[in-house]
Design brief:
about 220 residues; mainly alpha
Length: about 220
Amino acid sequence: MKRSKKRDRLVTGIAIICFLGVWAVMVLTASAAPVDLRDFDHQGKKIYDAHAATPQPYMSADSGDRNLATYYGRRQYPGSPPIIPHEVDQTFDGDESNCLSCHAKGGYSQEFDKFVPVTPHPENTLCYQCHAKVTTKEKFVETDWKSIRPPRLGRSFLGSSPPPIPHALQLRENCIACHTGSGAVVEIRVDHSARGNCRQCHVPAVQTTPVQEFVRKP
C-alpha cells in the first residue's frame, strides 16, 4: 500500500510539473507574438483597416454611371483583373506605386469628373503585372472563347437571410473596396459597411458555370 501511494504521488507530481511547463510556454509564446483577433480569416483585418483609412466622403460617394455591365466589360472573365480604362501618363512608367496616389484611398478626380475606385489590395504595387492598357481591339488569332457566366446575385437560403459571397476572396479580401463608395456599382452596393465584419454573415459560395464548352482550335 505504501509503495502504491508513493507511486501515485510521483505520477501526480510529474503531471503537475508537465502541466506547469506547457502553461509557461503558452504564456511566453502569447506575450512574445500577440495575435490580432481581427485577422480572423482570408486577411479579414483588411476590412477594418480599409474602413478606418477610407475618407468619409468616399464612403458615401455615388458610383455615378458605373453598373455591372461596365464592371464585367472591363474583364476578360468574372474574377479577372480589370483593364486600365484611361490613359496612363508617361511619368507613371517605371514607378507603378504612383497608381496608388489615386487608387489607395479614392477621392474625386477633376480630370475624369468622377470618384476613383479603391483597390482592394494596395500592398501589391506591381500593378502592370495584372492590369494592362488596351492598345488594340483586334484579335491576334480567331478563337471561340466564351467567358464563364457571371455569378448570380442574391441566392439567399431564406428571403431574409444574408446572401453568400459568389466569388473567390483572393485579392478581394477588402469587401468595402467594391461594395461601398464610388467603386460600388448600384447592383452590389451595400448600406451597412460600418458593421465591419462582413464574413460574420456572408460566407463564400463560389459557383462558376461555363457559357459553353471551350474547345481549343488545333
